[in-house]
Design goal:
about 180 residues, mainly alpha, 4 helices, rod-shaped
């Protein structure tokens, strides 16, 4: 009877460790999905800004007014923050992140053959607990990188809006000085 209770106790412990491992693997996959979504947003932002940026560059190079300088500085800050955001998001999607789990191998089969049930359950539980700990560290690193990628995406959007504001501000000033200058 006591051995039966011991076995059930370790089976429950194994089940809890397996659930924890499955939960951490799910977290890992959700982070990858979120990074893919951010990458899509960053790509769209880069494409739109590339198309709109060409006309802005033609207007402000060489910079001749404070508006041009502000627009140029905002544009440089925009692209710098966008590239750094891309770096952080790509680092989340790196394939070099290895998830830990109990390997299925001939050694495992031999371990099952050589040991009794209680020792096997206990060893599998220990393996799962170690894998959860390792995977959590990897997932936490991915969360930090994804958070920085998100923050820098917001910063780049802010600077893109500054570029637009300064570019439009320059057009308004030029139009007030000479109303025919913008009539192409």
């Amino acid at each position: 009877m006591e051995e039966s209770l011991n076995i059930r106790k370790y089976e429950e412990l194994y089940k809890l460790s397996k659930d924890g491992l499955d939960e951490e693997l799910g977290r890992f996959r959700r982070l990858d999905e979120k990074a893919s979504n951010y990458l899509s947003v960053l790509s769209i932002l880069l494409i739109i800004s590339g198309l709109a940026g060409q006309s802005t560059i033609e207007l402000i190079i060489p910079p001749t007014s404070i508006w041009d300088w502000l627009c140029l500085a905002s544009g440089v800050a925009f692209f710098a923050s966008l590239l750094i955001a891309l770096h952080f998001v790509f680092s989340v999607l790196k394939t070099s992140y290895l998830l830990m789990k109990i390997p299925i191998s001939t050694e495992l089969i031999k371990f099952f053959d050589d040991n009794d049930y209680l020792d096997i359950i206990y060893a599998l539980t220990k393996g799962n607990v170690g894998a959860v700990s390792e995977n959590r560290m990897v997932s936490d690193r991915k969360v930090r990188n994804l958070t920085w990628g998100y923050r820098l995406t917001l910063v780049s959007v802010f600077f893109r809006n500054c570029v637009h504001h300064f570019d439009c501000g320059a057009e308004v000033v030029l139009h007030k000085l000479n109303p025919t200058i913008l009539n192409h």
